[in-house]
Amino acid sequence: MSDKKTMTYYPGCSSLGSGRHLDESLRAIMPEVGVALDDIEDWNCCGASVGHIGGGQLPNLALTGRNLAKAQQKGTRDVVTGCAACYLNTHGGAEKIKADVKKRAAINEALDAGGLSYTAELKVRHACEVLVNDVGLEAIEARVANPLTGLKVAGYVGCQTVRPFAGTAAGGDYDCYDDPTFLDDFTRACGAEAVPFAHKTACCGGSVAVMSPERTLHLMKAILEEATKAGADVISTPCPLCQTNVEMYQPAINEKFGTNYNIPVVFYSQLMAVAFGMDGVKDAALHRNTIRSEKLEAMAKGGGKA
Amino acid sequence: MTTPAPAAARKYDLAFAKWVYQNVNGGDKLSLCMQCGACSGSCPIGVQMDHGPRKLFMMIRAGMKEEVLSANTQWNCTSCYRCVVRCPRGVPVTYILQDLAAKSVEFGYAKGRHENKNFAQSFWWSAKSFGRTDERLMTMRYFFSLGLGEGYKRTMANLKIALGMVKAGRMHVGLPHRIKGRKGLQAILAKAREIEARHGSAGE
Known about the structure:
Chain A is globular.
């Protein structure tokens, strides 16, 4: 890790709801490894994966346009987000606006109606890519004060954190699509054991799981089955929707398939906060998991009870 | 002796393929499809689709407008982007399916109490009204858009999850989280809609 830097931070809507523990743990760990986060003022929704259906393609892109215009008010620093969907939309949108002059003009015409403009060419990055490329595994490892010895972790990457941008130059070229290693690297850097996990980039069902779980419960079951077989104590993921889906639907899966899953699903950033010796509640936000990991909480400073 | 080839049973409307190429986001790359099936084979819930993406793309070329726009293919796409990164021809499969979904709604093929359509509309309502996704209100609006009985049924089925989320502080009680610049955002979105009506949506 070289010098300390500040990045413009886009928390995204889940940071205020289902993904609060991702946001809270990211805010805790990033400055510890030299990246200060400075929020976009009054940021808005990214449009996720269905915004274009209700709103239209250009209005959906205008959501990103407004966020970029507000980010530009913070200067030309890189923008970073921890949410997979926010990254997908904001990174993809920023690159599109950069590459296509007509699109840039259309977005600026729309932004003008709200008294904004976007003239910069901001780089929008995923927190995991920043941790890999800017911070580096060695610096993460060096910060570990409380190694998670004996904790078995299934690294569940999911989809949009790596697809379709992880292997592109604009996306920081930080890993591959089908067998990415960064998440297991994070686990090992924290002193925990990364168990072999074939379903690391399988899909949980995304927003289809939210709107009609019946269509996708079998996808999540396959992930849980594999993690159980691998002997994992916890599943670790970077994606707020994966975390919520795979955690909250375990009772429904058990009911439908006659299984008995009760596996904690945590964020890599929560693991890092615990491994950095930070507070189990204030920093690691372990109290926000609805399926708690006693093993992880016992390792955390102050435990995990709020 | 060889049986004589039958006369074509119906005429294909080639204008539909051209329309898709010109009007659907990513459609300009559709002509690169070589029908290898890497997309359908990679799809997590391809088996639940009426037609996998490969077949749907051939149907587009065959001019099967009604079948394509009323297929459930575009509604089962989970946006996992596996097809996008695996397509050897660089066809942006997910993007095409996503915009075909929007076109299905626009032209009235997703009628009535349609899960995906209603979900997308509830989502946009929250984004536009508050500038943010209020997971609670969006979900409730979606549930009850499917009918009073269905709304009640789904609310009850998800009550335990909701209470767990409230207890963990991941679902708040009170006013929705709203941005300050709602008026400005709404003006931006209205203007964007107007520009799109002027220019069309392809290539967004």
